[in-house]
Design goal:
Length: about 325
């Protein structure tokens, strides 16, 4: 089967699962069911696309298929921002009540962090993948420790607000920012489109990319901004999902069997939508909401991560 045939197969499965999710158990109550499931399915598709897109780009920049943007602490930074706002201004402050303002502040700070991270890491002479892991783990641990420190000091009622944002949930989607997220993703796609042609070259490594005429620093800086915004969108919509990006990016590589990112990115997005919509369908219709989808994804993703580590170890 060719690349286009594989993408069409994935598209058919994704559309089929979406139609199934929208219609199963409706019992004719379309006016009540369709708007509510419509918002949820829109959030699932946006989240799946954002995570798949950002992970695929991040793995290409770092030239490593077991890394996700979580390694540089972006998820932890989002939780630190939310906890700091509640710790300092309270859960009834305008930054927390106004979801659009909260989203704008979170995205702005994460973009600022991505810029600082770029200067610390990618412009430093002799930097390599081990330095990336070290700095990323340090930032992630620092953000996590500061978040925990503030959480144990705040009022228990305020902590409940923080707790709601700590775990990913597709049953409690932040629908207030769905429109803003969709517009932002369309603008990002237009912004990113001209850099799509560079991803195949960046996958060869920094030296090869520079020798082939790519303005490496400029392109990578732009791509890191895109990754930071996409992670912000996904986390603000449903909460942090650690292993989804790792799972769908690697499955896309195995399924598509190509280095061309225009096929890989579309394939990863469709696989992500299939995993989330199919998973949510199972959670609602088979497990009766007894298990959150994020727990299943993190369990399967964690096992797959161990498999990738063992697979890479055997090569050594």
């Amino acid at each position: 089967m060719g690349f286009k045939g594989k993408l069409i197969s994935l598209l058919v499965i994704a559309v089929g699962l979406t139609v199934l999710y929208m219609t199963v158990g409706a019992n004719g109550n379309w006016e009540y069911v369709l708007p509510r499931r419509g918002y949820k399915i829109a959030a699932i598709i946006l989240t799946g696309a954002a995570i798949a897109f950002s992970t695929m780009v991040f793995q290409t920049i770092t030239n490593n298929r077991i890394l996700t943007p979580s390694i540089i602490g972006l998820d932890s930074l989002y939780m630190l921002i939310q906890t700091f706002i509640i710790f300092t201004f309270g859960s009834l402050s305008i930054v927390m009540v106004n979801k659009h303002l909260n989203f704008a502040v979170s995205v702005g700070l994460m973009i600022l962090f991505a810029g600082v991270f770029f200067k610390l890491l990618f412009k430093r002479e002799g930097s390599n993948i081990y330095f990336l892991l070290l700095i990323g783990l340090i930032f992630g641990t620092l953000f996590g420790s500061l978040t925990t420190f503030m959480q144990v000091l705040i009022d228990p009622n305020e902590f409940l607000t923080v707790q709601n944002r700590m775990f990913a949930s597709f049953n409690n989607v932040n629908t207030d920012i769905l429109g803003a997220s969709l517009i932002l993703m369309i603008l990002l796609t237009l912004f990113f489109y001209k850099d799509l042609k560079y991803l195949d070259v960046l996958a060869l490594g920094k030296e090869h990319a520079v020798n082939l005429g790519v303005d490496y620093d400029k392109v990578v800086r732009r791509l890191l901004v895109v990754v930071a915004i996409l992670v912000s969108i996904a986390t603000a919509l449903v909460g942090p999902i650690t292993f989804l990006g790792l799972l769908v990016a690697n499955v896309a590589h195995e399924f598509m069997k190509t280095y061309k990112h225009n096929y890989l990115i579309v394939g990863a997005i469709l696989i992500s939508v299939i995993a989330l919509v199919g998973g949510q369908l199972l959670v609602e219709r088979v497990f009766a909401f007894s298990t959150p989808l994020s727990v299943i994804i993190n369990f399967v993703g964690g096992v797959y991560f161990l498999y990738l580590l063992l697979k890479e170890t055997r090569k050594w």
